[in-house]
Amino acid sequence: MQLMEKVRQTEFLGREFLLWLWFQCEINEERFDLGENGQAELWFDRRIVLQAESDEGVEKITCSGENPHLREARFALTKNKEITEAMIKLTIDDNEWSFILDSTWMNFKSFKTPRVMQDTKEDPEGLFHEKFFLIEKAVTTMDAIYASFIKIRISPKWETHELPAVLRWVGEGK
Amino acid sequence: MGLIFGSGSFTRFMVDGDVPENYMEEFPPRILRCAFRDIDETSDLERSFGWVNIMDMFDSRFAAMEYLKEPCIAMSWRVDVRKVPARALLRYCREAEEKIKATEELEYLPKPRRAEIKEAVRIKLLKRAIPRSQAYDMIWNLHTRVLIFGSTNNKLCDEFTEFFLTCFGLHLKAIFPYTIALQVLEKEGQNPDLLDGLHASSVGEVQ
After folding, report:
1. CA nearest B180: which of A149, A93, A34, A172?
2. Whole-complex ipTM
3. What CA–CA distance (Å, rounded) separates B37 from B60?
4. What is the pTM of this model?
5. B23 at the A interface (CB within 8 A)?
6. Residues contacting residue B29 through CB under 8 Å, at least 6 positions apart
7. If both were cysteines, with which of B72, B136, B140, B178 could B147 make a disulfide (CB 3.0 to 4.6 Å apart)?
8. In B, which residues are within 8 Å of A131 by CB distance?
9. Pairing between β-strand A39-54 and β-strand A57-64 as defined by DSSP bridges
10. Predicted confidence (pLDDT) per residue in A3-14, tens digit
């Protein structure tokens, strides 16, 4: 199967992940257990892109603003719109990352790491390694959270518990 | 500014195939062959691309093998593009056509002749154009085989994967939600077919 065909056929995984992630942020007070790697705090921050596909074509809306509850985006979910991009803030210990996560490729856009302490001129190697460590930390954290989603998604628990709970939460956004 | 010095966007790939055991001997000549070279001012090339030092996009000599950053190979892919602005091309073409019509005492120029003039003018102007330089960071973790490329533009990513194959003889496989999920199942010792049996959940319009 061609790559793009496979991407299209399975793109619901990324969209459902972003929906589940938002739901989890709200019900778990933004806390995610990373097992032996501690805990992360994560929340959706100020910008969400949603999309609806129908016979008439693709309709895309971007919700952005200072309202921390993103009410318009929550309402859009009740109207059959799916999340395709979300701006996310991630905190682990005292470090904070900010990025836009894309549902199709799971790409990271506008990715900002916590401030790096190393001096560019004094120790360029140190700067590289610190920055690389920070990039990997955010990526592996998001992969770990995605892994939690996949484990639930393939289990019977998805249909019996998780999806109904997500739908209830979506309905509360009306 | 790339990922190392500021903020940016990136795509992830999985390097398909094993890194040769003697990579310390095999990779340096490959990297130098694909190192960035400036566009020769006398040439009519529109584009040039190649590897540069991730810490300094104007250094492509790699005198101290600066790309070796245990456990990674890290470089930037520099792409220089020079273009002739459309309006400038139009203006200089008109001037050239008028000049030829006057010298050859012609009332109009046939289409093939005009195309010929346009190409000559474009090449002449191209040689005067200053290239626009962009550098996209590439960090390849040799242990995990995951490669980060500092762009999310599909066309550019395709060009990069071709360039990477030419340089290292290794294919880059796209990472996307399905492939990450496959890795999760493999790690958990679960049947990958579970994933292929999934269908989009019906969320629908909530009443």
Report:
1. A149
2. 0.92
3. 8
4. 0.89
5. no
6. none
7. B140
8. 3-4
9. antiparallel
10. 889 999 999 999
